[in-house]
């Protein structure tokens, strides 16, 4: 595949996923896809967990969308800078809807095998999302003994 073709696939994946279309996960990702999410530290996700996560987001933000802001490709990798937008009109992570609009940046680096995405590194600015929703965040520490 050419870099331009990989870019088109990455854009399609981003936009359709942002619309809540989980069929794109089976269509454009390899069977053994591995995702690396920078959420609670460093979390590895598979296709099933990606679908569940997307469903949770769209339950809380039914109008969620992702707009691609920039795409860069080299070799077998494509970097996508996008923005996720939506209004919190549904329950989200056990919290009632706030009615607030959120806009968060998303960074994604995809590695291709053939015509499909085989691996992804994803960074969503969830701290910004929680702040925009008006949630107060507290730092929890865990003491260790020697």
Main features:
146 residues, alpha+beta, Nuclear Transport Factor 2, Chain: A, 4 helices, 6-stranded mixed sheet
Highest CATH level, the class: Alpha Beta
Query: In DSSP terms, counting alpha (H) and pi (I) runs of 4 or more, how many helices?
Result: 4
Using only C-alpha atoms, the radius of gyration works out to 16 Å
In round numbers, the mean pLDDT is 92
Low-confidence runs of at least 5 consecutive residues: none
Largest sheet geometry: 6 strands, mixed
Structural class of the helices, strands and pairings? Answer: alpha+beta
And the CATH topology?
Answer: Nuclear Transport Factor 2, Chain: A
Total DSSP E strands: 6
For the record, the CATH architecture stands as Roll
- Whole-number total of structural domains: 1
The rough form would be described as globular
Placed side by side, the strands forming the largest sheet appear as 2-1-6-5-4-3
